[in-house]
Design goal:
Elements lengths: L2 E4 L3 E7 L14 E7 L1 H11 L4 E7 L4 H9 L3 E7 L5 E7 L5 E6 L8 H8 L7 E5 L5 H10 L3 E5 L5 H7 L5 E5 H11 L10 E5 L5 E5 L2 E5 L12 H14 L4 H15 L12 H6 L3
Parallel strand pairs: 1-4, 1-8, 2-6, 4-5, 8-9, 9-10, 10-11
Antiparallel strand pairs: 2-3, 6-7, 11-12, 12-13
């Protein structure tokens, strides 16, 4: 089967800083690196490196050909990435000495994906394929509705969090992933806990405490693997991509989550985003 990802594509400018800047503070960075990023691109790369067939639906500007080329190098089908007369999205990421981060996003082409690109892409999809999206592009509800109508399994990564965006796609979802803060925000907005949302599978990630899965048989907790983190950027996207790839390959949810926890643990020991996501052989060899 295949994973169709309506997802963001960013240039990530990562600055190492002594601490996260305070309001009004001018702070000198100790280093600067540029990576391929965006939650969508990260998830596509993670799923592809986890041996899934991944087809990315998105947009770049004239300045973004390098990002499309790099996705292709990492095994992602890029035929449905449009080039628009809008700048490629970018993120400014500050990472402090304790591996915490602060991110500023400029949406650029991610917010201008033409509906025709989405429709043309999904015209090639097959019943049983996965459709996944996040809150960094336009067309989230349109894509989720169309995919569900076509018999695809639909997943949503609820970040950056917006309760109204989540509620707009909730009825179409088979899979929802969000972190513990986002889960509380959604509960405050909807009055529903993860177990009450009516979604078949909900995963709440807990950072260094692992993850909770709310499935057909109730809640199951999974402990995180203990590592010394150097950069948490992209770890959640890596986890999500690996879970979806595992499910797409027919793994039971428990095994898909276990594999994804390994991938996420490896990811936080590396500096960067999509370019440093571990491949399946590294994950399988990792003992934690």
């Amino acid at each position: 089967m295949a994973i169709w990802n309506l997802g963001s594509i960013n240039a990530d400018y990562v600055y190492a800083v002594p601490h996260i800047p305070s309001p009004g503070e001018t702070l000198a960075a100790t280093s600067r690196k540029v990576f391929l990023g965006g939650k969508g691109a990260n998830m596509s790369v993670a799923a592809a490196r986890a041996a899934a067939q991944v087809k990315h639906i998105g947009a770049i500007g004239p300045d973004g050909k390098w990002a499309k080329d790099r996705l292709l190098e990492y095994g992602v089908d890029t035929r449905h990435i449009a080039t628009l007369e809008v700048e490629t999205a970018h993120a400014i990421i500050a990472v402090d000495a304790n591996s915490e981060n602060m991110i500023i996003l400029h949406p650029g082409a991610n917010a201008k994906i033409p509906q025709a690109v989405l429709q043309n892409a999904l015209s090639e999809a097959q019943t049983g394929d996965w459709f996944i999206t996040q809150n960094e592009t336009n067309l989230q509800r349109t894509g989720s509705q169309l995919a569900k109508k076509m018999g695809l399994k639909v997943g949503y990564a609820a970040a950056p969090f917006d309760a109204d965006r989540v509620k707009a796609v909730l009825d179409h979802l088979d899979f929802l992933i969000l972190n513990e803060i986002e889960a509380e925000q959604l509960k405050d907005a909807s009055g529903q806990s993860p177990a009450d949302l009516g979604v078949k599978d909900v995963i709440v990630t807990l950072g260094g405490n692992g993850a909770d899965w709310f499935g057909p048989k109730g809640k199951h907790h999974f402990d995180a693997l203990k590592v010394d983190p150097v950069d948490t950027t992209g770890a959640g996207d890596t986890f999500t991509g690996y879970v979806l790839a595992g499910l797409d390959r027919g793994l039971p949810m428990e095994q898909a989550i276990g594999q994804a926890l390994k991938a996420g643990a490896l990811m936080v020991t590396r500096h960067g985003t999509a370019d440093v996501i571990p491949d399946l052989s590294e994950v399988q060899a990792f003992q934690g």
